[in-house]
Every structure is written in structure tokens, then in C-alpha cells.
């Protein structure tokens, strides 16, 4: 009985450790064509196969992080007043890919 409890806790610890280290997601940076960051851009990320959406807004550094996304193909749409709307593809190759960096450039609308 004692041995079963020890084995159970070892397996539980191993599963918890794996869950904490294996993750994937997107780190998106939005800039204009001159390279200046764009804070406040609205980003929508749609998983191509599962059709679920997540949204975020860029911070003062022009960045947005979406952790804990499943692997697969995504469509990223970026909107900001004064700029053209941009949609780009992205891919997360595996569950343990970490944060996949995506840099997006926006063109000003005139």
C-alpha cells in the first residue's frame, strides 16, 4: 500500500512538472513601416481548424502575448486607427514550442 502511494505521488509530480514546462503560444510585436512600435493595436487570433478566437491589445512596447495556445495554424488580424488592417498566417508547430515570435508591420492609411 505504501509503495502504491509513493508511485502515485511520483507520477503526479512528473505530470505536474511536464504541464508546467510544456507550453506554446504567440508573442506578437506590431510596428509601423519605420520600425516604431504601435501600442493599442487590437489583435485577434483565430485557430484555423478549431475556429476558436483569442484577442489582446498591444502594450506600450507594441507587444501582445497569448500563451497556452494549442499547436496548429492561425490567422492573426491586427487593427489600429490610422493604419490598414493586416491579416497574416502563423503556425505553432508543437505543444512545447514555447512562445513563437511574430513581427507585424502596419501601413498607414491616407
Radius of gyration: 19 Å
Q: Strand order of the main beta sheet, please?
A: 3-2-5-6
At the fourth CATH level, what is the homologous superfamily?
A: Immunoglobulins
Output the CATH class name: Mainly Beta
Q: How would you sum up the major sheet?
A: 4 strands, antiparallel
Tell me what the structure shows.
It is built from 1 helix and 7 strands, in the order H-E-E-E-E-E-E-E. The protein has 110 residues and is of the alpha+beta class. It has one domain: Immunoglobulins (Immunoglobulin-like, Sandwich), CATH 2.60.40. It is elongated.
Question: Which key phrases capture this entry?
Answer:
18% helix, Immunoglobulin-like, 4-stranded antiparallel beta sheet
Task: Give the helices and strands, then pairings.
Elements: H1 2-21, E1 24-32, E2 42-47, E3 53-57, E4 63-67, E5 72-79, E6 86-92, E7 98-106
Parallel strand pairs: 1-7
Antiparallel strand pairs: 1-4, 2-3, 2-5, 5-6
Amino acid at each position: 500500500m505504501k509503495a502504491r502511494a509513493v508511485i502515485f505521488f511520483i507520477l503526479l509530480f512528473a505530470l505536474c512538472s511536464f504541464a508546467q514546462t510544456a507550453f506554446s503560444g504567440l508573442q506578437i510585436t506590431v510596428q509601423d513601416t519605420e520600425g516604431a512600435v504601435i501600442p493599442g493595436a487590437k489583435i485577434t487570433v483565430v485557430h484555423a481548424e478549431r475556429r476558436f478566437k483569442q484577442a489582446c491589445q498591444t502594450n506600450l512596447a507594441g507587444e501582445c502575448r497569448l500563451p497556452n495556445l494549442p499547436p496548429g495554424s492561425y490567422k492573426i488580424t491586427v487593427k489600429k486607427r490610422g493604419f490598414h488592417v493586416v491579416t497574416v498566417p502563423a503556425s505553432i508547430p508543437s505543444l512545447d514550442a514555447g512562445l513563437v515570435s511574430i513581427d507585424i508591420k502596419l501601413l498607414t492609411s491616407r
